[in-house]
Model the fold of this input.
Amino acid sequence: MSRLLTVASVVCAAVLGIACGKDVAPPVAGANPLADSADQVMSGARFDITDAGLLRAHVEGDTAYFFNNNTRLILRPVRGTFFGSNGAKEGIIQAREGVYDTRLGVLEARGDVMINSIDSKRLETPYCKFDQRLNQISSDTTFFLSEPGREVRGIGFTSDADLSTMRVSRMLSAKAGAVTVP
Done:
């Protein structure tokens, strides 16, 4: 009987040793640190950016997190429409995240940023910012601009919202279509 008890004890110890030998972390629910530290959280946020009563942009986000007494908003994802001085739509922006500072009037877009102008220009960059006071888009990182018959790759740019007047800081490559000489 003692021999059977000894064998059973050894088997139990071995099973417990194997079970305890696996360092398996307990399951943890995914947490959103922004939601925990935000002053407010809003679903389906929509607002307008104006300058002296003139509509410059309409911005939307699935979720908005408000910080610093509601002067800094983080929108995930962010979508927006830019408007010119005559009120006409100039471009559409989309990104994984947007940060809007109401004091400075600056909207920063991060993560797979795409800006499409009304006249078929398309700008892709990992980061850019829109300054409502200047009605200007700029970036200091890589970008790719495409339009019918032309492609430009570079680092850093400054442009108006419809991508018609663009200053490139550093050109990496450019490709143009056929040029007609009179």
